[in-house]
Amino acid sequence: MSTEHQRYSTENQADAIKRYADERGYQIIRTYSDAGKSGLRIQGRAGLTQLIADIEAGQTAFKTVLVYDVSRWGRFQDADESAYYEYACKRAGISVEYCAEQFENDGSTMSTVVKGLKRAMAGEYSRELSQKVFAGQSRLIELGYRQGGAPGFGLRRMLIDEAGNMKGILSRGEHKSIQTDRVTLVPGPDDEIAVVNQIFRYFVRDGQSEAEIAANLNAKGVKTDLDRDWTPSVVRQLLSNEKYIGNNIWNRNSFKLKKRHVRNDPNNWVRAVGAFEAIVSADLFEAARAIISSRSQRLSDEAMLEGLKETLEQHGFLSGFVINEAATLPSSGAYQNRFGSLLRAYSLVGFKPDRDYRYIEINKRLRGMHSDIIRDTVSGVEAVGGKVDRDLQSDILTINGEFTVSIVIVRCMQTGAGAFRWNIRLDTGRLPDMTIVVRMGQMNELPLDYYLLPTFDMTRPKLRLAENNGLSLDAYRFDDLSHFFEMAARAPLLEVA
């Protein structure tokens, strides 16, 4: 099931299947489920994949598979795909029965025709739903509402209720909690707006490059909206984003029906002009865009590839991050637009990546964060009167001489289906009493939340977290470490008495 808001919740399906089994004298000995998963592709469907793998390997103690209805195999765009998985069961001598269908799956002509029709209907349902969702999202964009993402330096997210009344500014990491509420962008603090305009003036009037602007801002101690140093790519993104002149842009990229990621032509972008209050004049923005456009158009394919080759020789590898940080190169997006993809541009300069080098930069950043988070944790415990002993070799913290804590930072990864996952490896060697899992956000820039996992309750050394994990794991989830600090607090004896 893909969402909780439907009759296909796993609980409802399980109840219906159990009633069916009881009526026919079946004993359910194993359940395969894919909670919160899209049925458009087999990728990410761990339950279905395991079922087929067990059946094909002959590692089954059952003779019948009970399925809620025909569409539960998946809403594949190729109707033959769901038929294939049913056939894989039958080929291994295992029958398939549908618990909520009005026909018996007995191999008759009627059941075959009905199943084929229902498989096609399941795929068509997804296509129609995709079109409706796209139309709805496009409408919200045209009305000036934000469809996710950080607001950016100089801007803030304003929460609006169903009647259009402003409810307040959303802080970093906060999200709306009511489905009918909307989010729009409003100007941020005056000092940030002044910096944004100064960046445009540096670029347009003073002729400074993105690298020079970033160096100037860092020298002045100005931080980005993510509280980090400025880089040329961050400056370039700011100079080219139309939200600073009040335009709401959406559908630059799409991933419809889980088929493939597509960089859409600008003519297909959904655009709402003047949706937000502008903080940069249109003339200044257009002047900056003209400079960026002329700079990229002036370079021939040969010149772009020659610059890419020089960067490869300098760094030994290429990635989108390396390209964006190179002051002499166009953006990675320019290479994608010119050559169709970064991989094709790589191949033209003789580079074949054997891994995604973005992870190198992300891991480097997370390693740098680890000591900062340990320092902040120690400071938080000491602030509430607790005592911390730190093992400098293992970074295990002993709190008040009573329990030990390990801190793990977990990178956010995106699956091929577009979902976000976090892989946790617990410290089974030293066995701390508790592991603080710092789960990073989608951009791996800031912590998303924290899990306080007691070793006693963890039965596996590795965990794979989704965005929502059910009560068994999310009961340990917290937005910050204040709960942990309360555990470490020391109370005066008179107060206890």
What would your notes on this structure say?
By secondary structure, this protein is α+β, with helices and mostly antiparallel strands. It has 16 helices and 18 strands. It has a 6-stranded mixed β-sheet with strand order 10-11-12-15-16-18, with helices on one face. The protein has a 3-stranded antiparallel β-sheet with strand order 4-3-5. A hairpin with a 5-residue loop joins strand 13 and strand 14 (420-425). The mean pLDDT is 84.
**DSSP strand (E) fraction?**
15-25%
Please describe the biggest sheet, giving its number of strands, its sense, and whether it closes into a barrel: 6 strands, mixed
Give the second-level CATH assignment, the architecture of the largest domain: 3-Layer(aba) Sandwich
The end-to-end distance, rounded to whole angstroms, is 53 Å
Categorize the overall geometry: globular
CATH fold naming of the largest domain: Trna Endonuclease, Chain: A, domain 1
* Low-pLDDT ranges: none
DSSP, total strands: 18
Overall pLDDT metric: 84
Number of helices: 16
Instruction: Record the strand order, biggest sheet.
Output: 10-11-12-15-16-18
At the first level of CATH, what is the class of the largest domain?
Answer: Alpha Beta
Structural category: alpha+beta
Q: Return the domain count.
A: 3
The portion of residues assigned to helices is 40-55%
